[in-house]
Amino acid sequence: MILPFVLLIAIFYFMLIRPENKKKKAMEKMRSELAVGDVITTIGGIVGTICAVKEETIVIETGADRVRIEFTKWAVSTKGQQTDAATK
């Protein structure tokens, strides 16, 4: 009677909890390794180049008009140049 319950918990752990924790750690590592000059995309879809890195925030420069915007680090979605194949 208890074996199916234990099996169900193990399946939930390996299928749901463990992959989510790995993904969270990878995102945290990526955000801690941000450096000046990196191209990033925010969770709002803003793409820019990092011009300053502070403890909890980053300043990015967007577009040819050199607009600078400050974001918290948790707002960074991806690091690196986006391609058309990756967005489809």
UniProtKB/TrEMBL annotation:
It is a single-pass membrane protein. It is found in: Cell membrane. Its main location: membrane. The keyword Membrane applies. Transmembrane segments: none annotated. Pfam families: YajC. Keywords: Cell membrane, Membrane, Protein transport, Translocation, Transmembrane, Transmembrane helix, Transport. Belongs to the YajC family. This is Preprotein translocase subunit YajC. The lineage of its organism: Bacteria, Bacillati, Bacillota, Clostridia, Eubacteriales.
